[in-house]
Amino acid sequence: MDRLPYIRFSTDDFEPGDRLDAWREAMAPMFETRRPDEAPGFRGAAFTYLMGPLALGGTEVDALAYERTAARIRSDYIDHYLVRLDYQPDRPQGVLRVIDLGQAVSLPPAPMYCLCVFVPRDVMDAALPGAESLHGLEIDGPRGRMLADYMRSLTRNAPGLAITDGPAMADSTLAMMAACLGPSRDADARARSVLDATLIGQARRHVDSRLTDPALDADSLCRALSISRTKLYALFQPLGGVARYIQQRRLKRIYALLTGPTERRRIGDIAFEHGFSDEAVFARAFKREFGKTAREVRAAGGVSAPDPGDAPDTNLSPPQRMMLWGAWMSDLG
Known about the structure:
Layout: E1 6-10, H1 19-27, E2 32-34, E3 44-51, E4 54-68, H2 70-75, E5 80-88, E6 91-100, E7 105-120, H3 121-127, E8 138-139, H4 141-157, H5 166-181, H6 191-209, H7 218-225, H8 229-236, H9 242-258, H10 267-273, H11 279-290, H12 294-299, H13 318-331
């Protein structure tokens, strides 16, 4: 029986002086990390299972500060929710939180012992509309405890699950999240934040569904969302502005196409399809966004992290395991 795809990595596999840098490199696809001091003896370990469109994992690591800035959000491909169960000395049953990786995150330095589920934005939005409003909140009470218990049970049983079980387990997990994270009795107090979160979610989906529409701009978004330009600009200010966000999403779509095995059109034709009428302007924007030209990205398209089906986890070197984890997070969904 083929098991769920699985990866585990630990800084124990590196020389002591390289362990902190190795962990930072592993987290780099998602977070910038900072240690309060550079004392020796750093240790971190993590595991992840791919479960249909979701990823289930856990981390045990010494104290680090984690930050996901607006600049990082604009520059990477990670657009997921993170449902995290943190174990703390004074709360051994864990503290459940939701983190929207499309919003800024700043976690103070502390040891981290947690379970987590990564959910792509479109998958979560379909199961739980308005999930953006849960960002940073602690989920307590009976429903929070039920979801925490479910995450612990899922982690215990994941080693015995077949890869064919993944989609069904993902559906069950999403149903459990929808039941436990849905609107609570303090919804009225959060009405404004829920509305704003819902609007930005709708705006993101509208943009992504119309990346090849030459008429996609601030005015079309205002009409689609029935809001004023002032409100729209306020919503997109943390993301660098409306025009910048649209351009970044188009560039990321083009990047994904160029690295795909079946895309053979001229780069200029792909750029034109995605709203760039001037190839020189596109070339400058692409190089500024990714640090490489579109030709370089296309040429390197076949070079990627090892596929989980290529070899068992034990056959991968420690750096390959960390690279594979970053690839899984980027490609999740």
